[in-house]
């Protein structure tokens, strides 16, 4: 059950990486920090292990939804990570997932760095001790991954509801739970009854818990991240970079089709029901970050094609204003709410392991009513139709037959559902603004949209793109 659109607030606004887990060995987490804080060491080693294994599982089972990209990580002498330490870190990652998707790790010499045009734009080239190159995987389309997962669950018998808000949660005399919900499409209210409530609302778990009228502890700390997209010189085509800024914050530059995006400029932030967008100060700060890493390519605000922001759910912990990276299933029985569970710290890159671990935990309290069935992780595809006409925008081409099939069979309510989460027009270079009207008209008979409603859907879509991505001006 989702409050609004599937994959709209967290998964769609992530950095889109099926990360190998290297970040858990970053400079801020030195061996001395691990020795001083054994709990942190255990958690981060376990997170790295999960990341490597989930990386391999996803690449193997759903190769259609990821693409391999070559990451480059400069090693500066003054940052205290000599090549031997980098080599040790990657060897440790490989040991955590023997036989899995390879990292293709190598350390480039100074001569090889100089011979690669894009690398010559890095700051402080005279201070380089080397440069690490390795393979990461990028989620080609996070929203579609989430939609596929939900539709696969529906095929296995799950009841799927989006645009449904939880209005209250209460304990019944028989120790079961009553969950009152509101269908935002129809305005109809309903009451559900369950033995177990699993609150996996991401950064919104505390707000949902607040509807229970129980005194539950805060378990989430939202962390807002922002990215901007630009077009870089041809020598950057397909290349990705990971480094640390002068203040120690991470900086990623990642290819996205013919563009690049970079960020994330994290900052603690409570979730907002209206969602998130990149503010002007953060955009300017990101441009400054890029120029500090690549001073040879001075960008300006005018180079930003679009931007996005999202809030990452992290587990709240005293002394950690940004939250911590622990992934936990909280049993609220100790807080007076037996049968109420809250999941925190979940990431797109480990969502399948999350499903397994949550299922195993809840199986101790409740048994399935039907026999198990095999889960398909394959990317869902549209039926073949060689005769269908097509629409194209920003490097993406979609058959009209696919638009119509998705509209009929994949829980579409508004035009942005279709453009971003069922077909890939939304994340094309122009975000599909040039064909929004054609798409709406192509499915208007299925959706029951009049000419006026088609116009409303187009204006609504333009407003969504303007508000959330900074492209164009709000129209409604």
Structure at a glance:
With 476 residues, the chain is an alpha+beta fold.
The strand count comes to 19
- Low-pLDDT regions: none
Name the structural class: alpha+beta
| Amino-to-carboxy terminus distance | 28 Å
- Shape, per Cα inertia axes: globular
Query: Helicity range of the residues?
Result: 25-40%
- H/I helix tally: 12
> Radius of gyration over alpha carbons?
23 Å
Biggest sheet statistics: 11 strands, mixed
Overall average residue pLDDT: 88
Could you please describe the fold and organization of this structure?
It is a single chain. With 476 residues, the protein is of the alpha+beta class. It has helices at 31-36, 38-61, 83-95, 110-114, 142-155, 205-210, 280-293, 351-362, 400-409, 415-422, 436-447, 451-469, and strands at residues 17-18, 66-76, 106-108, 128-139, 164-171, 177-183, 189-194, 197-199, 220-230, 239-244, 250-256, 259-263, 267-268, 306-317, 320-324, 328-331, 340-344, 390-393, 396-399. Strands 1, 2, 3, 4, 9, 10, 11, 12, 13, 14 and 15 form an 11-stranded mixed β-sheet that branches. It has a 3-stranded antiparallel β-sheet with strand order 5-6-7. It has a 3-stranded mixed β-sheet with strand order 8-17-16. Strand 10 (239-244) and strand 11 form a beta hairpin. Helix 9 crosses helix 11 and helix 11 crosses helix 12 (451-469). The longest helix has 24 residues, at 38-61. 38% of the residues are buried.
